[in-house]
Amino acid sequence: MVQKSKPPPAANQPERRGEPERRGGPKRRGRPRAYEPDVALGKALDLFRKQGFAATSLDDLSAATGMNRPSLYGAFGDKRELYIKSYQRYRDEAGAAMVAIFREEMPLRQRLERIYAAALDIYLSGDTGPRGCFTVVTAASEAVGDPEIRAMVLDGLTGLDKAFASCFRRAKEKGELPESADPFALAQIASATIHTIAIRSRARVPRKELEAIVKGAIDVMIGAKG
Fold first, then answer.
1. Distance CA 216, CA 115 (A)
2. What is the pLDDT of residues 187-200, one digit of tens each?
3. In angstroms, what CA-CA distances link 97 with 114, 116, 125, 219?
């Protein structure tokens, strides 16, 4: 018998022994992620806002996000790091909801009313009840003993003061406030009103009562509506 000769390897393709033929393109390596980090972070944020840092265990976070502990550590670090990332996410989202109202041109009273209405929408949200403001919750808990978290909270508080002060300054320039008005003092009152409705909303004070507080504070800051 004449043995048939093997065909030569294709040009520029070295012969590989013992390797099965690949079909349909290169084979993907590793297991695909079974979670979306952005979605998981949102779930963690919801849980931290509801329960706080101390009352939220890693098992709670694992159940909420659908990620086991090694996956949580790999994606976000330890529980503290996940809390910080969640708090930053909250600040980004809350800021995005407010920034347009602070920047648009409108009468001062209308601007303040819209700012507080947007804040109440945030504070009163939650599947199981109002969750309040995550900054206020964090200020009263984790900011006390953690310098990095405290710095984030203070940055958020001073940022709100500055945003309100800019509103009052522009209103004063347009003649909506008297010459004697102090924009920064008014800004601190405006911020304090934000904080009190945040606390009361978490205590499940009805929205109508919170809106009454807002109306009274606006009348004090810029005068009763004629």
1. 15
2. 999 999 999 999 99
3. 11, 11, 14, 24
| Tokens 């309040």 found at | 132
Q: For residue 21, what is the DSSP state?
A: P
Other CB atoms within 10 Å distance of the CB of residue 190: 23
What are residue 128's phi and psi, to 5 degrees?
-110, 10
Compute the distance between CA of residue 51 and CA of residue 211 in angstroms, rounded to an integer: 26
* pLDDT tens, position by position, 64-75: 999 999 999 889
Distance (Å, whole) CA 216 – CA 200: 15
Global pTM reads 0.79
CB of 225 closer than 8 Å to CB of 109: yes
CB 163 within 8 A of CB 169: no
Give the pair of three-digit tokens for residue 89: 């996410």
Spatial distance between the Cα atoms of 181 and 172, rounded to a whole number of angstroms: 7
